[in-house]
Amino acid sequence: MALTVHHEARGEPFIGQVAVALVLRNRSEKYDTSVCWETFRHAQFSWTLHPSKLRALPAGKDWNEALRVARYVLSDSADFTGGATHYHLLGIRPHWAGSMKIVGQWGDHVFYRPRSQSVYNGGSLLRKCFRYDALGLRQREVPCATRKPVIQ
């Protein structure tokens, strides 16, 4: 998750980086897979198509921020994206965007969810929530958080 945040949203505000991480978490929950599986599923995130980005872990301030974002999202943070499963950079219009519902813009990305997605309650998607380990593997179901995201 931290790799995706680093390569896709580096330098964006904290909330924009969290939104990117939430897409990964939402996908892993929707498809009953791990965050790692969703990260490296073929052609899902553009950074994974560049072999040079797969050779070594990043370092520095931006990498530390990406790790902080991943820890925050994997620690049962609230999903303020309304269940977003897709996003793209501003100014780009991918082929799939027309079949999706825009749920918001955070940082430099526009976020989407499938039009047929579940019922909403006060802006929060009614869904199961899960606790994750440090590798992004789902461990167990937990009560869904209802708090707003803490922006630090």
Could you give a quick summary of the protein structure above?
This protein is of the alpha+beta class and 152 residues long.
Top keywords for this entry?
152 residues, alpha+beta, three-stranded antiparallel beta sheet, 4 helices, disordered C terminus
Q: How is the largest sheet built, in terms of strand order? A: 1-3-2
According to DSSP, the number of beta strands is: 7
**Biggest sheet statistics:** 3 strands, antiparallel
The residue-averaged pLDDT reads: 82
Topology overview:
Elements: H1 2-9, H2 14-30, H3 35-40, H4 61-74, E1 86-89, E2 100-106, E3 109-114, E4 120-121, E5 124-125, E6 129-132, E7 138-142
Antiparallel strand pairs: 1-3, 2-3, 4-5, 6-7
Helix pairs in contact: 1-2, 1-4, 2-4
What does this structure look like?
The chain is α+β, with helices and mostly antiparallel strands. The chain has one domain. Helix content is 30%, strand content 20%. The chain is built from four helices and seven strands. The protein has a three-stranded antiparallel β-sheet. A two-stranded antiparallel ribbon has the order 4-5. A hairpin with a 5-residue loop joins β6 and β7. α1 packs across α2, α1 crosses α4 and α2 packs across α4. The longest helix has 17 residues. The chain is globular and about 40 Å long. The chain starts with a helix and ends in a 10-residue tail after the last strand. The C terminus is likely disordered.
